[in-house]
Amino acid sequence: MGLKNETVYLESNFKQWKKIFEDEKNFLLQIFNNEDFLIEHVGSTSVEGLLAKPIVDIALGVIDFKDIQKYINRLKENYTIKENNDIDEILLIKENESETFCLIHVLNRDSDRFKNMIKFRYILNNNPDILKQYEQLKKHLSNIYSNDRKMYTKSKNDFIKEILEKH
Question: Per-residue DSSP letters for 64-87?
Fold first, then answer.
């Protein structure tokens, strides 16, 4: 489990990804105690039957970013933390020096980005034709951008945006 940094490789291992999500969720619930956070498995690893990079994506919905600040030191023990103020996101990355295993996107739970991550998962899980189109796009892009994960991810955005607008 995990993906060498900057590379793209797709595989199918839904049961393992689901277990990793559950383990991370339980770990986060222990840290956050009784906070009112939403923890959702998102991204391709959350869709059974879809090829995905072996990196589990989790959306962590908070009411206010200040709510997460009191846990930052504890989170730094297990994750690299990157803030992206352009899209109001804190990214928690579970990684070692050469591989990434899990990305936790801390977002305002009322934000479009948080809602769209869950909506896209729902669409893929309930529309086999869209899932097949998306998987074909992912395969094509993984061949083109096998050593450029940022371009691979960016190149999927138009498809995702179009699907979200239609549904």
Answer: -THHHHTTHHHHHTT-EEEEETTT
